[in-house]
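For the sake of clarity, the format in which proteins appear in this thesis is described at this point. The record quoted next illustrates the convention:

___
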Amino acid sequence: MKKLLPSVFIFLSLLSLPAIAGEKVAYQNWVVDMSGNTTEAYTANDSKSSFGVFCAADKCLFYLHQALQCQPNAKYSVLMNSASLSTALSMQCTQIGGNLFQILDPFDAVLNAVKAGDTIGFAVALQSGAFGVTRFSLAGSTEAIRRALEEAAKAAQRPPPANPAPVPPANSPGMRGLKDILI
């Protein structure tokens, strides 16, 4: 027992330390990526698309990242479906760093769907008239998003890093303040 006690103390001490920039933590099918001034919780599917929540400073947004090409600043319609909620959303194509993301709006509709289901799907109208459909697992999403929000709140208290990661424009649709997000 005496040999085990120091190991337990060290382990518990490590749990209380803040997240290290660049750290990734898995929660079932979701990953939380803590990169200094940004925090992201996301999942990916077999078609290399991803869905998640991205936080910078004290603001967060939900996004889709898929192989479909979109024009920066263009707005599109998307249908969202989960076990308890089906609704039409707006999404805006936004370039962050060198990647194009579709920012989902309204934030609360997406959050409510995430909290209530096991899977979530999105159908995006294509130029051909067909729909591109992507589905994602929500296993681990609540814990991952909660952790991302906690880490984003901590990051918002720290001074910005010398080389900050790219962030979406402050006026992006679908952005929510950390204090307004309940999960």
Q: What stands out?
A: The chain has one domain: 20-162. The helical segments are 4-15, 107-116, 141-157.
